[in-house]
């Protein structure tokens, strides 16, 4: 659809967008963040960089463990799941400073 064009599609709802900040490996070392690994338990046993373990499918029901004014950095293998987790928690806790680790643990293993 081009801007200004007409369509017969009825828009009934717009999806809310939640902005999430990204953090690099180097920046992570300079910030005092609570690390949260959102990968599977098998991935965590293979390699991890520390922090809490809350698999992505449990993030929404676990979001109450985070406290206001806390800085959190979510991580996964590539950054995709950590971004999803960060968006879920940020939507429920807008006062938190939340990051997602760019390139995830793949960057640490290379």
Provide an overview of this structure.
- This protein has 5 helices and 5 strands.
- The mean pLDDT is 86.
- A 5-stranded parallel β-sheet has the order 1-5-4-2-3.
Q: How are the elements arranged and paired?
A:
Blueprint: E1 21-23, H1 25-30, E2 34-37, H2 41-46, E3 52-53, H3 56-62, E4 71-75, H4 80-92, E5 97-101, H5 106-109
Parallel strand pairs: 1-5, 2-3, 2-4, 4-5
In terms of DSSP E residues, the strand content is 15-25%
**How far apart are the termini?**
42 Å
Spatial sequence of strands, sheet with the most strands: 1-5-4-2-3
- What best-fitting shape do the alpha-carbon axes yield? globular
Instruction: Note the total helix count.
Output: 5
H-E order: EHEHEHEHEH
Brief write-up:
The protein has 110 residues and is an alpha/beta fold. Helix content is 33%, strand content 17%. The longest helix has 13 residues.
List keywords for this structure.
110 residues; 5 helices; 33% helix; 17% strand
């Amino acid at each position: 659809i081009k801007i200004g064009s007409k369509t017969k599609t009825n828009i009934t709802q717009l999806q809310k967008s939640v902005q999430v900040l990204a953090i690099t490996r180097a920046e992570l070392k300079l910030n005092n963040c609570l690390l949260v690994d959102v990968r599977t338990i098998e991935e965590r046993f293979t390699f991890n960089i520390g922090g809490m373990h809350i698999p992505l499918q449990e993030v929404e029901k676990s979001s109450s463990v985070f406290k206001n004014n806390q800085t959190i950095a979510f991580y996964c293998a590539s950054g995709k799941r950590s971004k999803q987790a960060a968006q879920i928690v940020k939507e429920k806790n807008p006062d938190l400073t939340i990051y997602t680790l760019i390139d995830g643990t793949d960057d640490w293993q290379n």
